[in-house]
Amino acid sequence: MKKSVSYNGWTDDIVFLEPDIIYSNRGGQDLKLHLILPMWFHYARKNNEPLDRKFPLIVYAKGSAFTHPEYKEAIGRACRIAEHGFIVAMVEYSNFLEGNTFLDTCKDFKTAIRFLRAHAEEYCIDPDRIAVWGTSSGATNAQFAAFTGNDSEYKTDEYTEYDDSVSVLVALNGPTDLNELVFSNPDFPIAKAYMTYWAEHPQAKQPEELCREASTINLVGDRPLPPVMLVHGTEDPLVAYNQTEKLYEKLLAFGHEVIFYTVGGAGHGSAFTSQILEEGVSFIKKHMKGDRT
């Protein structure tokens, strides 16, 4: 049997990866991001055609217990998100176990947002339509970016003339109170790794202060915040379910727009189901300013 179909040009659900874009350097370590871009962009640039479209951007942070995230583990999900008409930037951040702090990783993520705004024209990004999406420690980074807006206190000295505020937040299974995470159960493997590192590498600040300054629950108050979608598995053995539950309750108490998806029976990584991916995409499309996806 022979069939014929018509070609109507590249569609936005066909994407490609542009990896290893250096956006910063911390302590001699190059920090990279990896872009999932529409195939249309790739061929237009290759053939010197006009780049006359702008795409909304999702800046994505994968979890890594605040060590160096392996972006290759997130490519599948990032591509599935991008297929809905987004550019997705998978951001690496500095490694806690290489002389950095929790707050450093959050600042890195905000630097990446400013870098992307600085290069918006180059990558066909709409700088007015930027959302953040994070999982585990990456969710803490994404929460921090959403909750601190364009606060100069948390900017590194790179791309300072650019705004690092965002329009929407999606956060899955993220630590929100690092003191509780680390000190409530010091024998817990993650807590033990942090304690061991601090003992072997004394810091300028006390561990309690290092945890407090990156605890996103402390950032929620009267200041305006973008719409928030939270997700947590009820059987998470790594980051307690009540970490997200307490953040949800505080956001509600201050009148912020928030929705909380509990994933019954899910553990730490398994809460990121296909349904949650679709809900996250829909939430971003609903709330992103001037959305045209």
Structure commentary:
- The protein is of the alpha/beta class.
- The chain has one domain: Rossmann fold.
- The chain is 34% helix and 21% strand.
- The protein has helices spanning 39-46, 75-82, 102-118, 120-123, 137-148, 178-183, 189-200, 207-212, 241-253, 274-287; strands at residues 15-26, 29-38, 55-61, 87-91, 125-135, 168-172, 228-233, 258-263.
- It has an 8-stranded mixed β-sheet with strand order 1-2-4-3-5-6-7-8, with helices on both faces.
- Helix 3 (102-118) packs across helix 5 (137-148).
- The longest helix is centred in the middle third of the chain and has 17 residues, at 102-118.
- The chain is globular and about 65 Å long.
- The two termini are 36 Å apart.
- The model has no long low-confidence stretch (mean pLDDT 92).
Q: Quick recap of the structure?
A:
The protein is of the alpha/beta class. The protein has helices at 39-46, 75-82, 102-118, 120-123, 137-148, 178-183, 189-200, 207-212, 241-253, 274-287, and strands spanning 15-26, 29-38, 55-61, 87-91, 125-135, 168-172, 228-233, 258-263.
